[in-house]
Amino acid sequence: MNAATEPTTSRLGVALSMLTLVRGGMGGSETYARALTEQLADRDDVDASVFLTEASRGFSRGIPEEIVPGVHAGGSTVDRLRTVAGLQLHARSIRRRFDAFDVVHYPFTVPAPKPGPRQATVQSLLDIQHLELPELFSRAELQYRKPFYEGFARRADAIVTISQFAKDGMVERLGLDPERIFVAYLGVDTTRFVPYDGPRENFVLYPARGWPHKNHARLFEAMKIARRTNPELTLVLTGGGLDTLTDVPEFADRRGLVSDEELRDLYGRAGAMVFPSLYEGFGLPPLEAMASGCPVATSDSGSLPEVVGDAAVVFDPRDPDAIAAGILSALDRSDELSAAGVEHARSFTWERCRDVHLEAYRFAHEHRR
Are 122 and 157 in contact (CB under 8 A)? Predict the structure, then answer.
């Protein structure tokens, strides 16, 4: 993590451009962006506003919203290209509104619209999965990410990422200056995710969208193996895009998108939370489960070992036998992992995440002065 820069004496104006937001369709990055709006509210050193499309009105939890009419965001690669093209049609008027701010931050990575030549810029680049696992991406998606992810990363004044693992990859694969990259670990709200005192039930929870890297197919195989030892064990799946999954076993309850209240209830009642992802720039669900006292078994890929420390069972996500063993171990070590997870999760706060963003904003502003 970069050393703190000298604090400024005047309030820094920050525009958060979230014009590519598709509500309910962006996984953990959406949780991150919303939490950031809450944490930037009522600061005496920052004046922040968030730029949104009409469809995303009401997304902010604290800072003022500036609505840009006539722009529509979508989730597919084609839809996102249309969004970028639409934003370019409005670019001049949006940039005039950006001029009132010292820094423009793009929490959803894509610089849409592109900033003005004298505008200080910060990009959130949460991972470079498309370079690490290109086989999981379409050719169109890879072509989309090259200019908007990689190209802008080389031009932005500062970059915020969410793990040392992600930062190291950006330095190695993109040749970025490590001094421009700020590591802001995500947080977990321990007033919302609280330890559950009741009995745990004989099901395993996997909260993840139906994206290829989330590795559902191997999890299904692992559950079949685990059920040889624990025949009544079932699986609960939550998240968007689960209708794209195939060969879903009969013991799996595919619930799709659920409310925050239902997710917290599931964390509380689950025998364990399993997270067999093949790649994560951070991985927020394991921390939410830990804060809820839910035992965690997680992949040893990407940033996940960095995030969970010694408070979870880790396994090889490409080996169904290893996943099954991890699940059974988490169930057997329930009390131990529950206590360790609650303690571990306390060190990940949104306030710390915000403070690193403030460092990045000041760094970017000073870089352009």
Answer: yes
Tens place of pLDDT per residue across the chain (369 aa): 444 444 445 799 999 999 999 988 888 899 999 999 999 998 999 999 999 999 999 999 999 999 998 888 877 888 888 888 888 888 999 999 999 999 999 999 999 898 888 889 999 999 999 999 999 999 999 999 999 999 999 999 999 999 999 999 999 999 999 999 999 999 999 999 999 888 999 999 999 999 999 999 999 999 999 999 999 999 999 999 999 999 999 999 999 999 999 999 999 999 999 999 999 999 999 999 999 999 999 999 999 999 999 999 999 999 999 999 999 999 999 999 999 999 999 999 999 999 999 999 999 999 887
Q: Determine the Cα–Cα distance for residues 68 and 317; give it in Å rounded to an integer.
A: 42
Tokens found for residue 70:
């006539």
Please state the pTM of the whole predicted model: 0.89
SS3 68: strand
Cα–Cα distance for residue pair 268/35, rounded to 1 Å: 22
Q: Where are the alpha helices (DSSP H) in the chain?
A: 28-40, 77-89, 91-98, 129-132, 139-145, 152-155, 164-174, 216-229, 260-269, 284-291, 304-308, 320-332, 334-345, 350-368
In this structure, what DSSP letter does residue 191 have? T
Of 227, 277, 215, 217, whose CA–CA distance to 251 is shortest? Answer: 227
What backbone torsions phi and psi does residue 40 show, to the nearest 5 degrees?
Answer: -85, -10
Taking each helix axis as running N to C, give the angle between helix 334-345 and helix 284-291, from 0 to 180 degrees, rounded to the nearest 10: 110
Taking the C-alpha atoms of residue 311 and residue 321, their distance in angstroms, rounded to an integer, is 21
Can you read off the two tokens belonging to residue 274?
């399993």
